[in-house]
User: Fold these one by one.
Assistant:
Number 1:
Amino acid sequence: MNTRSSDAARPLSSTHGFAAVGDAWNRFWFSPADSWPLTLVRIGTAAIALAAWWSYAADLQAWFGPAGVLPADTVREWRPPTGFSLFDWAVTPLSLNALFVATGVVFALLLVGFATPVVAVLAAVLWASLLHRGPILAGPADDGLSILLWCLAIGPAGEYVSLDRWLANRAGRPVPAAGWRASISQGLLQVHATAIAAGAVLAQLKGDVWWNGLAAWYLATGPRSGAAGLVPLLERSEYLTNLLTHGVTAFEILFAIGLWCGPTQQLVARVGLIGWPLVGLLAGEPLWGLAMALFALPLAVRR
Amino acid sequence: MSRPINNSTPSPVIQTAVTVALSIYLVGLVLSIVGNTGSGSSAVVRTIKSRLFSPWMVPPWLDLGFDYRLTYGSDEDGDFSVEVRRQGDEKAAPVRFPGRLTGERAARWRRLARSIAVEDTDRDGLLAAAVGRGMFDDAGADDVTVRVLRTPLVDRGGPPSAPVQASSARVRMVGGELQLIRAEPRGEVAPLVRPDASGDPSDGGTGSDGEATR
């Protein structure tokens, strides 16, 4: 299997300067890549999207309904001027429910891979709309999901393990050849994995608790943390608290850099598959941790 | 799972167009991180980003700074909840969110409560007013108190702290008009001491016990 990432790790030719940069750019973005990793990302993203979507279900009318606590005109004060939401037009309980259910159906179709090229775009648009309807309610996992969905909208994510594939097999159509759209999609996932990790590190290192080693304590004792079992251990040992704090920072830095070093790329991506969900659990943002792991998935499963 | 490799690259026109699009997007991505609101940004970055990039990066929810600090151990990182109660009736059971809710649903209520306490002051209490109005039915009255409670973070080796009031506002409907009356925290002021003890109000003193009133 030829993949984009292995091509990108190839030594540059003898050309120099701009030509070398141009070659590297073209190899990274346009070398044909298999879409199998995107299939895995699609399934994982759709599953997380369904979980995040479901978290709105019980309070949908209480938040966005005609008598809800977040009327559209109030929410506009929180939105940048160009932000808009399809949910703004759902002004009756029925239309709001209908649009919300349609969003869930689109995510379900993405999960099973039906009409994937269209459904992936719809999923990204509807998710962005839902977030814009209540930006106050959105968290890191929602941001990550948005990026994942747009990446899936660009690349062919339904060519394997999908209803699309099943229908194509029945019609006798072969698996399409590897293409450059898959390469762009996976390249964007890699770029965003680094950008998010770097952004998080930059933000964290502005706080004292990430330097004095106490951040892990505050995270573990937080209301949402899934690491409450660690609290007695952290209470007994300040060193352990410090190590965990610095470990999170070191992991994020190594992840951001390591994804771009050929020899360490796959190892770092595989560590990310475990590391990000653990960080998410500690921080009380499990869906964010899982979403971050999906960014690393294409490089982790590369052959 | 291998399959044939189509080694042909996109046509030069498509390749150029995609390269331009990717380049523009990557610049926008960098500016989003550099200019995210959480860290503040320079005027030049803010202007370039807001005029050239935000207009098309905002609608798809891509104008993100990834300012995921997770915690700074500060008050703002505490656990927030919102409580709505019929005004003047301390015995009435309040409507509380997230209450016993868990998971992502509870997290969304916490974000809402935190926004009321931390960000709403810049917007004249619009959010508190909207939340109060939206909960008239739940509270069984059209005159309610919206309170945000913050449970402080537990310091290492310290005891858990009781929730404290982070913000409070009275929201009521009067003659079809929604009114918000914020409970402003009383600021700390230095006592004003009159130069003479005659109590002449013209000298700017308070004329009482020397403590300024607001």
Number 2:
Amino acid sequence: MPSRGARRVSQSVGSRAADAACDETDAVALAAPPPGCYTLNQMVQYSRSPAFAALADATRRGVLEQLGRCDASISALAETFHMTLTGMKKHVGLLEEAGLVVTQKVGRVRTCRLGASRLDEEAAWIERYRLLWAARFDALDTVIADLKAREKKHGRRKR
Amino acid sequence: MAAGKDDAARPVTTAERAGDRELVVTRRFNAPAALVFKAWTTPQLLMQWWAPKSFCVTFISCDADYRTGGSYRFMMGHPSSDQPMAFFGKFLDVTPPSRLVWTNEEGGPDGAVTTVTFEEQDGQTLVVLRDLYPTREALDAAIASGATSGFGEQFAQLDAVLAG
């Protein structure tokens, strides 16, 4: 199961922003939406998530793929990816922050494994949920602006 | 995709899972609470913003009795379906202009109870919306289903009915 998560994660990286748009189709369990339904703005907002940032790097995607095969210590990962221990620690730290990797220190060795793959799904779901509310609230701004203008125009009878 | 000044000025909508069974959304509005509350509780106004065009949903009809104990029924349409979908429940608390609580019953007993608070600060209003599910499992299931805020659940159910 972890490898499934890692594979999905690493595959989807390049087209992640596009996926965010497509995901809304999934959200309503429907066939392709009419063109122009999903805005660039939504994709840009999606790209702000920590998971997105963590995945915007080839080494980190490689680390996820590697951890999908088996757990590994930070030093082993550093060796595999030909980098310093400090450099690998930084990468692992970012993946950990995004919930994609979990680390555990046993004695002097810090072992890394994939975070529950659900975390990634959950983050994507919450982002869709946020986009729905953001879209509603942006439209609500317009309604409120209209109301304000109307109340101003019709005087201050109420006050 | 240069972000214009308007984009930068647009308040941010945040959403996060708070604990086992709750989702919390926040947003600030540049208007007094009474006005935001009015836009939320006047069917004719609600219909203008509740079904975002970018989600391809149309708001067909809105029957709502905005009183504590009153009920609501929203009919929504989507280009993929001939039949409208119903979203319904009861208002558990309507306290203008600061608090609104309703049930979401279209998905059965595992639906969330939504609480919205309108908090006015210096002429602006902070809206905090909480979707509280009955159990952790109910929220996990909502996430696992891929549905977002009811729309998906409804359409997924319709798909299941049509497929069956």
